[in-house]
Amino acid sequence: MRILDRYILRELAAPFLFGVAAFATVFVAGNLLFKFARLVAEQGMALGDALLVFVYWLPGYLVLTFPMAALLAALLAFGRLSGEGETTAMRAGGVSFTRVMAPVIAAGLAISLFTVAFNETLVPASARAAEELLARAAKGARGTQEHVVVPSFEQGRISSLVYADEFNRARGELRGVTYIQYLRGKPKGVIQAARAVYRAGNRWEFYDGFSQALDPYRRVTLTFREDHPARFDLGHDPTDIALRQRQPEEMTWRELGDYLASLKQGGAAAPELRVQWHHKLSVPFASLIFVFIGAPLGLRSQRTGSTLGLGLSILIIFAYYVVWNYLAILAGKGALPPLWAAWTPNLVGLAVGVALVRRAAR
Questions:
Q1: Do the Cβ atoms of 59 and 126 come closer than 8 Å?
Q2: What is the pTM of this model?
Q3: H or E segment at 10?
Q4: Which residues on neighbouring strands pair with residue 196, listed in sequence order?
Q5: In this structure, are 237 and 309 located in the same domain?
Q6: DSSP letters along 22-83, please?
Q7: Residue 333: predicted pLDDT
Q8: In terms of CB atoms within 10 Å, which end of the chain has fewer, N or C?
Q9: What is the DSSP string of 315-358?
Q10: 224: pLDDT confidence band, cut at 50, 70 and 90?
Q11: Are residues 168 and 108 in the same domain?
Q12: pLDDT band (50, 70, 90) for residue 250
């Protein structure tokens, strides 16, 4: 049986790599090249910097190709096996299709776990590097940014959070600012002020507000007025604040979870971000779901060509992501719990895949 398992895994490997290359090419040609061209032509970025941003963007798109490639690999591999009568020979030798699925499921699980690791390490780091490079390129830009959020993390847990209604980088000024410090993921102090102005050495002068130590036994509150500001070290200067505004794709699953917890403590539901938090796990595990669907669908009496397999995989992927996107929109509007919005496509796909496997086994 181990020989059979290795044989099936080898059959899956080549079309999986082909799928990653094919779908990555589609993403590059259909999206990244246009974004790259806009950086150079419209924003005037240097060619070398634009190429570096292009490279930093690649992992975020590449991670989406793994589930697609897993589906294509299962379709093509079992299309070839059935087209050449090898699956019939396996059954004649007493090997059930359910047993044949064992290495396929193991491969799907391995791809899913690899995608989770890839999505937790390389994707956030590369996304942050791209944003920092873009921010440096726009360093001379003036104007006011609204709803600035700057979380900081230590050892994967949130350590502080800066929020401001408005941020003017040229003046080094925050308005409607809230600064929260955390200890082991729990708030230990909060500062709120009408505005804060940057001084040298990461020191900020806070005007018209208060600071409060969130001690469970004794809460100490200090107030300060417009004519007597208080000084605090936020650990960030204006340039750093501009660089450290993280989007969900720039955070790991744990970092985004801590960030959502801090928003919840402040009374913000943030359903869109919560859906994206669940997607950091549900999308990678689509690889496992897709092999359940692809392997039985690949069984045909005639040899399945790569063109037919690619077309069928595109149709399945299109249907999956249409449902995935529609449910995410519903959850963002509060019409559906984020957990269900993120995992329902996988649950439906799993049910369909199990039904197809049982049918093929009969």
A1: yes
A2: 0.75
A3: helix 2-27
A4: 174, 206
A5: no
A6: HHHHHHIIIIIHHHHHHHHHTS---HHHHHHHHHHHHHHHHHHHHHHHHHHHHHHHHHHHHH
A7: 84
A8: C
A9: HHHHHHHHHHHHHHHHHHTTSS-HHHHHHHHHHHHHHHHHHHHH
A10: confident
A11: no
A12: confident
Give the pLDDT of residue 251. Answer: 85
- Within 10 A of 30 (CB to CB), how many other CB atoms are there? 10
Which of these, 220, 239, 226, 360, lies nearest to 297 by C-alpha position? 360
Same domain, 151 and 126: no
Domain total for the chain?
Answer: 2
How many CB atoms within 10 Å of residue 305? Answer: 13
Same-domain pairing of 8 and 72: yes
H/E stretch holding 168 reads: strand 157-168
The single residue listed with the structure tokens 């001084």 is 199
What does the block give as tokens for 11? 């059959």
Across 180-217, b (16+ Cβ under 10 Å) vs e yields bbbeeeebebbbbbebbebeeeeebebbebebeeeeee
Q: Which domain holds residue 12?
A: 2-137+275-361
As beta bridge partners, residue 154 has 157
Looking at the structure, do residues 10 and 101 belong to the same domain, yes or no?
Answer: yes
